[in-house]
Amino acid sequence: IRGSPFSVMIKDDIDVSKVKAYGPGLEKGGIRAQNLQTFTVDHANTGSAPLDVKVTSQMGATVNTEVTDNRDGTHTVKYIPPSEGSCKVEVKYGNQNIPQSPFNVRVLPPYDASKVKATGPGLQQGVPASFPISFTIDCRDAGNADLEVILEDPD
After folding, report:
1. Are the C-beta atoms of residues 101 and 16 closer than 8 Å to each other?
2. Cα 39 from Cα 95, distance rounded (Å)
3. Which long-range contacts (CB under 8 A, 24 or more apart) does 23-27 make?
4. Which of 103, 68, 75, 107 is nearest to 89 (CA)?
5. Is 67 in contact with 75 (CB distance < 8 Å)?
């Protein structure tokens, strides 16, 4: 056959409706400003295509993102929202927005002191001053901030 052999380009069948994004960095209830956020893009149930993630602050500035191919049909995305307000997370697969993209994410202040919890025997009344005692301060849900502990004698 004249002109043979022929080169044929074969493309994966892309169905962007099968791509999902999920994780704490997309929480509708809000994420913390100036705290590392992560989410997963799962494209295991469709063909291979370029992934493009763009995060934009409320003021329109592009936020740096780090996208890691987990080599299992998923990617992990990391970003740090700069300030409270909102941000837009746009996820495109094969140059098409995936379902629910762009995601509008509420960005809360970097910390919330009301979420700090202190518990333990060292916080009970009548603890003898001469014995070592302990208590726990749980800041996991409060965000990032400096912690200062001041012990005062009530007298």
Report:
1. no
2. 19
3. 25/77, 25/78, 25/79, 25/89, 25/105, 26/89, 26/103, 26/105, 27/105
4. 103
5. yes
Name, in order, each residue with C-beta under 8 angstroms of 15's C-beta and a sequence gap of 6 or more. 45, 46, 47
What tokens appear for 113 in the block?
């002191």
Map tokens 């301060």 to a residue: 137
Residues in the chain predicted with pLDDT less than 50, given as ranges, are: none
Q: How far apart are CA 35 and CA 130, in angstroms?
A: 40
SS3 label, residue 82: coil
Per-residue pLDDT tens digits for 17-52: 999 999 999 998 899 899 999 999 999 999 889 999
Structural tokens at position 115: 């979420």
With tokens 């992990």, the residue in question is: 76
Token readout for 22 is: 């999920």
Q: In this structure, are residues 70 and 76 in contact, taking their beta carbons and an 8 Å threshold?
A: yes
Q: For the chain, state the CA radius of gyration.
A: 24
